[in-house]
Amino acid sequence: MGTSVLWFRRDLRLGDNPALGAAVEAAAAGEVVPLFVLDPRLLGPSGRPRATFLLGCLSALDEATGGRLVVRHGDPVDVVPAVAGEVEASAVSVAADFGPYGRERDEAVEGALERPLVRTGSPYVVDPGTITRDGGGPYKVFTPFYRSWRDRAAAAAPVDRRAGGVRWAAGVRSDGIPAEPRGETARLPPAGEAAALGRLEEFRRELADYGRHRDRPDLDATSRLSPYLRFGCLHPRTVLAGLGRSAGAEKFRAELAWREFYADVLWHRPSTARESLQEAMAAMAVDDGPDADDRFEAWAAGRTGYPFVDAGMRQLQAEAWMPNRVRMVVASFLVKDLHLDWTRGARWFMRHLVDGDLASNQHNWQWVAGTGTDPVPFFRVFNPVAQGREHDPGGDYVRRWVPELAGIAGPGVHEPWRLDSGMAPTGYPPPIVDHAAERAEALARYAAVKERAAR
Fold first, then answer.
1. Backbone CA torsion sign across 73, 77, 80, 84
2. Distance between CA atoms of 32 and 30, rounded to whole angstroms?
3. CATH of domain 279-454
4. Which CATH class for the 3-122 domain?
5. Residue 320 and residue 185: Cα distance in Å, rounded?
6. Which of 10, 112, 262, 396 could make an S-S bridge to 232, C-beta 3.0–4.6 Å?
7. For the segment 415-445, what is each residue's pLDDT rounded down to a tens digit?
8. CATH architecture of the region 123-157+193-268
9. Rounded to an integer, what distance in angstroms lies between the CA atom of residue 451 and that of residue 371?
10. Domain residues of the chain, as ranges?
């Protein structure tokens, strides 16, 4: 009998975990050391909501391993070889990481280890870099990627749970799970694998209406699975296994594919975490200076005077989350009504979202900004009033998150400045900009970039 190390990262679960099976095999009927490294390079920029949710996931994982989870602080390049040496491990098992930092980190750890680093599985159904066009090279738009992904995903099945037969190693020093960060006020979902599986079962019962209602924030009809997928409390294979073939299931299957498409884009172009994929769009004129900073602060605080936008930004403060439709509207408002660089909004989201995922976040922002994989949206400017009226037709979502407007009945809540009094209720600001004018300005700026690129 031997010992192996299972180094958890974005796979904080025991079920459907191929790396766990590899660790058991490497231990040869011996003991497995479950290890998590609190890496300051990841914790620093993560923001309180994600840090808090992570610690909850670690507590759940510790309970699932019988209190044997080993938590160490520090650089994984130092910590992982040290733990492996202490227990004389035959191998260190991990799920592959395809992010820019994760790839660099794992290569460094592999070079420092005196035993194999065994990569088995990943956070994705189809690993980034796997799907390519017939002529080679990555897909640049979603639809053809999805056709290929869907065929491969259909063959994916959850891996058998191996936790019941695992001998978790005892007596290995652990720094313990830190206390949750002070000052976190957002209402976060329950953390861990059991909570993820419970939410998945609830969502399966709601799936029939998903396609029709997912864009209705007043109905709260999205899956709410994103935090669990982000931390690997749930693998997307497990989600796909019970979806079926309804219209709602097909729509949600495509949403899972978007997550993997953006991971593929980032794998091929790591620079797009901070730079525009469409290089010509880097020449777009954006506003800066004190006035731009004031407008950004109004947007972040949910004080733009556009109720649908403000409701979304206040939900972000309260729950560290918002539905995808609302994310697109508030992103469009920042980029195309306030003329600020998409990276400012992307950074804000990554600091405040409990489900903040680098690939999905950055490339969704680029999709809205017209700098990313699909160049068409450069002329698509979301009208915050029209979006509110269409997707929150009764105004319930706005009234839920903007209490200053709670006394306005019906869809009129989306345009409080049109009340008989001619002004919004006391305490609510007037519109920070005129949407029609700023839409025209945004289109002029995009046209200038296109003209410059065509020369």
1. negative
2. 7
3. 1.10.579.10
4. alpha beta
5. 9
6. 10
7. 999 887 777 788 899 999 999 999 999 999 9
8. Alpha Horseshoe (1.25)
9. 15
10. 3-122, 123-157+193-268, 279-454
Quickly tell me which residue has 């290890």 as its tokens: 35
- Output the DSSP codes for 327-388: HHHHHHIIIIIS---HHHHHHHHHHH-TT--HHHHHHHHHHHHT-SS-SGGGG----HHHHH
* Residue-level pLDDT at 377: 62
Q: Grade residue 123 by pLDDT with cuts at 50, 70 and 90.
A: very high
Q: Are 353 and 319 in contact (CB under 8 A)?
A: no
Q: What is the pLDDT of residue 163?
A: 55
In angstroms, rounded to a whole number, what is the distance separating the alpha carbons of residues 159 and 139?
28
What 8-state DSSP symbol labels residue 133? Answer: -
Domains 3-122 and 123-157+193-268 equal at CATH topology level: no
The residues facing 117 across adjacent strands are 92
Cβ atoms of residues 365 and 345 within 8 Å: yes
